Amino acid sequence: MNAHEIDYKIYGEEMQYVEIELDPNEGVIAEAGSFMMMDDGIKMETIFGDGSANDKGFMGKIFGAGKRLLTGESLFMTAFYNVAVGKKQVNFASPYPGKIIPIDLTRFGNKFICQKDAFLCAAKGVSIGIEFSRKLGRGLFGGEGFIMQKLEGDGMAFVHAGGTTATKELAPGEKLKIDTGCIIGFDHTVTYDIEFVGGIKNTLFGGEGLFFATLTGPGTVFVQSLPFSRLAKRVWASAPQGGGKDKGEGSILGGLGDLLDGDNRF
């Protein structure tokens, strides 16, 4: 095994966290900001790149950090090592409501493709890189699904998804059409492309975007019901603008009610 062999347990329902159990000298890497708590005896270290075997040497570290920069992530990751005698635990939390999905990379041919903001943490030795699209259409219209993260190695990795999750097993040649933001990740054997919705009414009035992703089997596809970008748009649309009052949810009068409730001063 190149990656450290870790044990884990996932807690919670809607706001989950994962507890990683480390034997002496074992380690785990995580995105900055995902740390929740850890036992005494765990050493925390900021590393340049992802700290995998692909990051050996100065140029390897520069290349690894550059790949992360392209996905919009920080140049640095955080590594946690058990430097004590017995077993110790370190915990990582979900950034928003949803599910944490454990990915055993050995079950996916040591390579798994996921959304660029889905990765949460992984066993030390797992490489976190980028999966570039080779097709112009994907690059121009892929949206959230354009630059994907690539997890490589023979250890455990953990990805986070929003809302409710589903798993689809695609047979050879079987296709699944899906909103680009609803993709969590998929087997490296799955072919990924972008398809135009078509139809003037769909284009102008459909409200679902002009393009969706087409995933072709064989392989496993993980799907989420609530992409973070969709959640953020709804929150932003409902938030008071300019620091003022809310939009009067639940009121037929809406904004007019604000003029009649006595709070406005002239």
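The above is record 1. Record 2 follows with the same two-line structure.
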Amino acid sequence: MKRFWKNANFRLKAGIIMTAFFLFLGFVVYYFPHVDPFTYNTYRGKLPPSLEHPLGTTSMGQDVFWLLMEAIHNSLLIGLIVATIGTVVGVFVGLVAGFSGGVLDRVLMVVTDTFVVVPSLPILVLMTSLMKGSTTIIVMALVLGVFAWAWPSRQIRSLALSLKERDFIHTAWFSGEGTMQVVVTEILPYALTWSLSNFMNATLAAIASESSLAVLGLSPANLISLGNMIQWARERNAIFTRQWFWIGPPIVATVLLFIGLFLLITGYNDYLSMKRGR
């Protein structure tokens, strides 16, 4: 770790620190004992920031700080689930298609290309509308995950096509290894580095997609997320009533989270380029 931190560039270090901070808020502070922030009129409305309420309360009597912690937790959880689905499914489909070839490759690529060319936003709008404003985090993540695997699959297939002509793959074939064994033991290790980069990028894209749907009023109304928190504050005229501590924190948190993930992705890619150069 010391060697990694010493060789890491500034963007990678800044991205790690910022992302770790949000993970701490979303998966450590979130579990501190507190009242359900979604419940209305738990406290007096429009209270200013204080020791009891660090960011004050909303006009509906909700604690803004704990509402923000819940929003960060749920947004990160959605991003991580979608990134896991997109990376695992994309890598698996891409490796199998690229290494198998033939009819299986053509069938898988037709399905993949279909998901690539179909515009995701109208489908997501339709699917979230069918949920009728009520769903769970898992279901929302699955909806977003439907479109998260296609591009990774195309990219990893190209890697598989180039690797399967290498001598060590032919040696594995001649030693009696099956297709899945060769994919898992010989090719997958080469895809792990790329998979980590794609995982971080997919996390950012998933959070952005959910936030966009929420700001448009299309995210489930019972889901506390950064996008929904902004939407609720906008609906109740937080700007016109000068409730800056209600609408400001989710906007700042969203921007900083995006910057942190962006720095992490670009810094990590530069770090890998530096290692290859050595």
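The chain has one domain: 7-31+40-277.
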